Amino acid sequence: MSSPTRVLVLNSGSSSVKYQLLDMRDGSRLAVGLVERIGEQTSRLRHTLVADGGTREQNGPIADHEAALKAVAEELSRDGLGLESPELAAIGHRVVHGGMFFTEPTLIDDSVLTEIERLIPVAPLHNPANLTGIRTAQALRPDLPQVAVFDTAFHTTMPESAARYAIDPKIADRYRIRRYGFHGTSHAYVSRETARLLGKEPAEVNVIVLHLGNGASASAVEGGRCVDTSMGLTPLEGLVMGTRSGDLDPAVIFHLERVGGMSTDEIDTFLNKRSGLFGLCGDNDMREIRRRVDEGDERARLAFDIYIHRLKKYIGAYYAVLGRVDAVAFTAGVGENAAPVREAAVAGLEGLGLAVNPELNAVRGDGARLISPASARVAVAVVPTDEEMEIATQTYALVIGSGNLT
User: Fold this and answer.
1) Which residues does 402 contact at the CB level (< 8 Å), separation at least 6?
2) What interhelical angle do 264-273 and 251-258 show, nearest 10?
């Protein structure tokens, strides 16, 4: 009997579960889906069988993640792709925070679960949901290898000079305060695909990756290894995002407490959920912001300009960190689809060898592509991210190498 080749990827959020089933023989997707609004009366499960494009939808209350994953298993079984299938090799789980302990994909056992739980204070919104997804999947298939792939792992190669904050190391170590970075699976995938687009090996290429979605982060990747990234202890640091402020003077927090009378929880909510583009202009959808800019809306224009200013600063900073840049790669929802953002981000950086070809930049497409002039010293690329494929690839490689295939 041939070895199983399928991997189920689970991304368990606080009120949602995204999933994909992939066949690692050719990287094809067999089924994809989303369960959202878990715990509400208006829960929805949307499941697509990729082979025929058929989509089924369930609407109605789904009480918790256990019920959600059982519903996912039932939908997969209806297509002959159930969790009981002997073709299923492993389940790969996205875990947001792995701290410094987890530097690579890891087979999950009790000690791994304990460490993920210990990291909840630095990822209170994400790690608990990730843990729930893992434990539920283990209950459904206790015999199957389960693998954790960590958002932070790709960034553990940062030198201490980039990872440390300028505070007492004893205090920092006691409370695990350092720059961890996030979106690591995306940065790993996109930097590697950018090298492929240039016809080179990752070890030969220095890339600035700009992951621009509702959450946004930048990374400096030198020869396939991350040497700096914009997010820090939490995903709040760095670029202007949909609802997060990104970089700001830490004394703003003290000012809001002392002068504004805001509590710690209120400040946390303010900076994470009511700031960024949303705080500046009332919208966090770049499409809507651009529509308003085109109509002459000054609040939207200011929000867009602040967003671009911060983005441009990070491009310049990471150019300095790397010394030599072969490519700047835009990815994620905004990076892949918002041509005005890409154009504005590199405008005025011609002295650094950066430019976009307006015609190429305006073309919409699904694949990786160059949008810089042929004569440009630094390539500018649009590279669609594929975090699920990255998780599946790392999961399958680990279970093959460990001899844990069932």
Assistant:
1) 107, 145
2) 130
Q: Which helix (H) or strand (E) holds 358?
A: helix 358-362
- pLDDT grade, residue 39 (50/70/90)? confident
Label residue 404 by pLDDT band (50, 70, 90).
Answer: low
**Beta strands 28-36; 44-49: pairing state:** antiparallel
Quote the CA–CA distance of 334 and 34 in Å, as a whole number.
21
Residue 30, amino acid: L
> The tokens of 312 are what?
């441009």
Amino acid at 83: L
Strands 88-95 and 17-23, sheet pairing: unpaired
Query: How far is 60 from 148, CA to CA, in rounded Å?
Result: 30
51: left (phi over 0), alpha (psi -120 to 50) or beta: alpha
Q: How do residues 47-101 score in pLDDT, each as one tens digit?
A: 999 988 889 998 999 998 889 989 999 999 999 998 889 999 999 999 989 988 8
Q: Could you say which of 26, 52, 143, 151 is catalytic?
A: 151
Residue with tokens 């792995």: 98
Q: Which residue matches tokens 């990729």?
A: 50
State yes or no: is 151 an active-site residue.
yes
List, for residues 204-246, the tens digit of each pLDDT value: 999 999 999 999 999 999 999 999 999 999 899 999 999 999 9
Give the contacts of 61 (CB within 8 A, at least 6 positions apart): 40, 41, 42, 43
Contact 212, 333 (CB under 8 A): yes
Q: Residue type at 102?
A: F
Whether residue 183 contacts residue 197, with contact meaning beta carbons closer than 8 Å, is answered with no
Q: Which two tokens stand for residue 169?
A: 């190391």
The two tokens of residue 83 are 């969790």
Look at the pTM and tell me if it is higher than 0.85.
Answer: yes
